[in-house]
Amino acid sequence: MDRKKLEQGNEAFITKMKEIRPDFFDELKKGQTPDYFVLACSDSRSDPDTIFSALPGTMFVHRNVANQVVHDDESLTIGLYYAMRVLHVKALLILGHTGCGGVMAARQGLANEFLDPWLDHVKENIQGVDQLNADDNQFVRQNIRNQLVNLKDHPVYRDIGKGIPIVGALFHLETGQIEWID
């Protein structure tokens, strides 16, 4: 690990934030009031804060491989609960991206004892796409659509999510653009 590179990046971040808003860190320590709960893929190329040019404190982010809503995922459940009940986010966003390795691994039937339980969820969520005539991103879109349904059906959302909109988006790695998914 190149700690020096990380330290330099941190120093650049501090300098930039102080230039943009001199009181940034004083405000940040007071607490968070994010507008959005974002469920995004773990892929290092698809960081929600970077994609939306969001400052720290704007988005409450949960990440996993292929942005899956799994009802018995305790980490997702507590994050979703905290975002809605304590932070009072205004919207929930499912953020996928083109070229998702998790979706492609599930589509190709990749088998691995460590990956199989998670990829089984992904496989379920890409059903209904024409295997022969679809491009890879049609599977990613289908996955996002199904995550929207899964989130609406999540016990925490059903219990306390009334009135909080859920939206889906596809981040295009090749252009940087967002495509909204219904």
Structural account:
This protein has 2 domains: 1-31, no CATH class; 32-181, Carbonic anhydrase (Beta-carbonic Anhydrase, Chain A), CATH 3.40.1050.10. It is globular and about 55 Å long. Strands 2-1-3-4-5 form a 5-stranded mixed beta sheet. With 182 residues, it is an alpha/beta fold. The protein has helices at residues 3-20, 24-28, 48-51, 74-86, 101-108, 116-125, 136-152, 155-160; strands at residues 36-41, 59-64, 91-97, 166-171, 178-181. The model has no long low-confidence stretch (mean pLDDT 95). It starts with a helix and ends with a strand. Helix 5 crosses helix 6 (116-125). This is carbonic anhydrase. Its cofactor is Zn(2+).
Helix content: 40-55%
Q: In the CATH classification, which architecture of the largest domain applies?
A: 3-Layer(aba) Sandwich
CATH homology group of the largest domain: Carbonic anhydrase
- What's the CATH topology name of the largest domain? Beta-carbonic Anhydrase, Chain A
Distance between the amino and carboxyl termini: 41 Å
Compute the number of strand runs: 5
Question: Could you provide a short overview of the structure?
Answer:
By secondary structure, the protein is of the alpha/beta class. It has helices at 3-20, 24-28, 48-51, 74-86, 101-108, 116-125, 136-152, 155-160; strands spanning 36-41, 59-64, 91-97, 166-171, 178-181.
